[in-house]
Amino acid sequence: MNSNPILGVVFHWLGGLASGSFYVPYKGVKKWAWEVYWLVGGIFSWIICPIFFAWLITKNHNALAVLAGMFRAQGLAPFIWPYLFGMMWGAGGLTFGLTMRYLGMSLGMGVALGYCTVFGTLLPPLLKCLVDLGPAVPKDIFQIISTTGGQVIMLGIAITVAGIVIAAKAGLTKEREMPEAEKKKAIAEFNFKKGILVATFSGIMSAGMAFAITAGNPIATAIETAGTAKLWAGIPRLVVILLGGFTTNFIWCAWLNYKNKTGYQYFAAHLRSGHANLAPQQIAQPSTLPVNPQSAIPNPQSKIPRLNNYLFSALAGATWYFQFFFYNMGESQMGQFSFASWTLHMASIIIFSTLWGVWFKEWTGVGKKAKTLIALGISALILSTIIIGCGTYIDTH
Fold first, then answer.
1. How far apart are CA 265 and CA 268, in angstroms?
2. Distances (CA, A) of 189 to 170, 210, 283, 284, 362
3. Distance between CA atoms of 230 and 73, rounded to whole angstroms?
4. Percentage of the chain exceeding pLDDT 90
5. Residue ranges of the alpha helices (H) in the chain?
6. pLDDT for 184-198, tens place per residue?
7. Per residue in 68-124, pLDDT tens?
8. Which end of the chain has fewer CB atoms < 10 Å from its terminal CB, N or C?
């Protein structure tokens, strides 16, 4: 199957739509602690969906058999780096959720993904170049940027970074202009300083996914050799990569369950008396939900809508998974320009998450300057994806 970079750009936009939208269903979760709904959603993201779709899309449903054959022939070698980089990404992923809590969808994703874009786009090909140094002329990024199309793509990446910086500046302006009451109304736990620190850590660590996907290329090659079309062959490597992400997130969420005594919430019908661990969107309610002292019947306000919580968390987790489902499809079509995949992915996430932020009125009450900056930032990101698409077209025609 030949590469089709323009189709690859479309797939990356679909992945960005999924990633930029995944946190929306969590807003329907009621009376669960963050660590509870994050882990429930994560089980769908990191375990159930990767295994199911790897089984579904491979020829003769042979993904797990191919992985088992690789293990028998090569041991853990093909899996160690994808798994470890997946753990690195997992550390960024769990703090990514905290970024949304403290900064909201627009600013949180803008800042975190700014770091993620730079590290995830440029480091993998640069490191590969260093590994390949020897008698032969280095390939990949240095060779690509010597072409007209490659130079256009690098221009697009530069505009992407500029757009992200502008979006982050818009968020800072918003934070300064917006009345405290409006901030808390739109984002219950808004905290700019704490959010920036978390977003910085999250963005840098989340770039591990770009490294993990590169490290998982031997898995994709084995799947393709076993008969699966190139378009789908990269998807089964997510089984290994996201297992690493699950490991990090499970350890942290289990620790928070223990520390905050929230483990009972997975199965309980009511919050315990005096328990204040509510989902972020419920934080404005009273901090305690006492049991009626005149009766053994729990206060109706403490009832946990378990079925709805599981459904919303599962929907969020599945939506999140589809970002990398489409990412792998997009990367398979980018050919020699696969290094630009991460940039396209990040830019599209910021675009869609900002639109969701507008929908949820996170920008209500801000001045003209902040609105102008965010409009310029989004415009730059849209322009950058068009330029990158043109660059891939130039060198393939």
1. 5
2. 19, 30, 8, 9, 13
3. 23
4. 30
5. 5-21, 34-43, 49-57, 63-74, 77-132, 141-144, 148-177, 180-186, 192-206, 208-215, 217-225, 230-233, 237-260, 306-333, 341-359, 368-394
6. 555 556 677 777 778
7. 999 999 999 999 999 999 999 888 877 776 776 677 655 666 666 666 666 666 555
8. C
pLDDT digits (tens, 9 = 90+) for 148-175: 777 887 787 788 778 877 877 777 777 6
Closest CA to 76 of 244, 196, 193, 234: 244
Q: What is the pTM of this model?
A: 0.71
Task: Please name the amino acid found at residue 372.
Answer: T
pLDDT value, residue 139: 45
What digits encode the pLDDT tens for the residues 303-325?
899 999 999 999 999 998 998 88
Take residue 274 and report the two structure tokens written for it.
Answer: 């005096």
Domain segments of the chain as ranges = 5-268+303-394
Classify residue 30 by its DSSP letter.
-
Instruction: Residue 62: name the closest of 233, 317, 307 by CA.
Output: 233
| Cα of 22 vs its chain's centroid, Å | 9
Q: d(Cα 130, Cα 158) in Å, to the nearest integer?
A: 22
Closest CA to 252 of 215, 314, 202: 202
Please tell me the distance from the alpha carbon of residue 233 to that of residue 333, in angstroms, as a whole number: 12
Q: Which amino acid is at 304?
A: I
* Of 344, 264, 332, 336, the residue nearest 304 (C-alpha): 264
Q: Where are the alpha helices (DSSP H) in 22-76?
A: 34-43, 49-57, 63-74
Please state the φ and ψ torsions of residue 325, each to the nearest 5 degrees.
Answer: -60, -50
| Predicted local distance difference test score (pLDDT) of residue 296 | 45
C-alpha 36/C-alpha 42 separation (Å) is 10
CB 166 within 8 A of CB 380: yes
Neighbours of 74 (CB within 10 A): 12
DSSP string, 95-113: HHHHHHHHHHHHHHHHHHH
- The identity of residue 262, as a single letter, is T
- Confidence at residue 221, expressed as pLDDT on a 0 to 100 scale: 93
